[in-house]
Amino acid sequence: MSTPAPSSTPGSTPALADPLPQPHGRPWRNRFALAPLTNTQSHADGTLSDDERRWLVARGTGGFGLVMTAAAYVAPAGQAWAGQLGIASDAHLPGLTALADELRTTGTTSSVQLHHGGRRADPRLTGRPNQCPWDDPEKDAVAMSTGQVEAMVEDFVAAAVRAEQAGFDGVQLHGAHGYLLGQFLDARHNHRTDGYGGDLDGRLRPLLDVVEGVRAATGPDFQLGVRLTPEGTGISLEEGVETARRLLDSDLLDHLDMSLWDVFMRPRTGADGLLIEHFARLPRRRTALGVAGGVLSAADARWCLEQGADFVTVGTGAILHHDFAARALADPDFRVRERPVSREDLRAESVGEAFLDYLAAGWDDLVA
Fold first, then answer.
1. What is the rounded distance in angstroms from the CA atom of residue 33 to the CA atom of residue 254?
2. N or C, which terminus of the chain has less Cβ within 10 Å?
3. What does pTM read for this prediction?
4. CB atoms within 10 A of CB 14
5. Contact 175, 207 (CB under 8 A)
């Protein structure tokens, strides 16, 4: 077991090139993490494609301290889009094992993001009604029974065990953006009375059950993280901060990644200060705090560490440059290329055809 990650200390800002100690397993080689970007490149059965493997391995060779897969569904009922990576059965293991082996050769730390779409799954793909903490006819979703919630927890734990068997260094639980674990946190709708809803203790219980289950079922060097939304989708800023505080205080996580949409934005509720400040000032012992959203330059990344974050998660910048991390570490003035960019330029960054189509359809001003 490695040296615990240090707590954030005012006036003591790490450098982007500094290794990030982890409570479990080996340190990350620097403070850059690849965002778990949806890329729709997997095969129809959830197995890994060559395009998706090339996309991820290129970011390992491109210098990222942590390379994370896109959201991988932990159960067939949780698949949310065509081309989504799966980790729901042993049939997914051969591709994942080959990926973990290749990522290891790049020197990066590897992780699988574990995901269940819940009410945001696609019943056309799953062939069944969506699962949700509450009945939601508009989403063709039916309230999960207590037994189904317990089975969902076991699906996440089993997926983490598969990731460890495949040779990944860790997993991240997708509790952000209104997917199933985040749906349980929704104070507007989750009024369950079976201990998995109601007050924050109840609404947080499914996520904590998964965290505790994964930690108990995996080895002492296996890393565990969580991604959270700070506010929105039924989560108030006050409860978002409290959820983050409890997770940071639990000593069960290696990292907590706050998906802020834009690291420079103010809270949507009109609260004082910047959104990042509400989370970066939280006390933490061994768990590293990361932030994501709109980091497009070395200066942006340094600013995040100056605010108190321990690492920076990069999405768009990693699409535009497979070696964003290496460039930012080598050049303090590095900034991403102007957008939009050509398909040919993106192909040169190991962005596959399915990913290109997804970006062209859904991302403004990225693909020319």
1. 13
2. N
3. 0.96
4. 18
5. yes
What pLDDT is stored for residue 6 in this prediction?
Answer: 42
d(CA 272, CA 24): 35
pLDDT at res. 11: 53
Q: Tell me: the pLDDT tens digits for 38-75?
A: 999 999 999 999 999 999 999 999 999 999 999 999 99
**DSSP symbols for 267-317:** PTT--SS-HHHHHHTS--SS-EEEEES---BHHHHHHHHHTT-SEEEESHH
Domain spans of the chain? 32-336
Q: pLDDT value at position 4?
A: 37
DSSP string spanning 71-106?
EEESSGGG--STT-EE-SSGGGHHHHHHHHHHHHHH
Q: Tell me the C-alpha distance between 218 and 336, whole Å.
A: 38
Host H or E run for residue 147 = helix 146-166
pLDDT for residue 140: 83
CA dist 274 and 264 (Å) reads 7
262 secondary structure, DSSP code: S
CATH number, domain 32-336: 3.20.20.70
Of the candidates 289, 300, 284, the one whose C-alpha atom is nearest the C-alpha of residue 332 is 300
pLDDT tens-place string over residues 234-292: 999 999 999 999 999 999 999 999 999 999 999 988 889 999 999 999 999 899 999 99
Residue closest to 97 by CA, chosen among 82, 107, 87: 87
Average pLDDT for the chain: 95
CA distance 151 to 78: 12
Residue in the structure block whose two tokens are 């190991």: 350
Q: Could you give the C-alpha distances from 144 to 22, 79, 119, 178, in angstroms and in order?
A: 35, 16, 11, 16
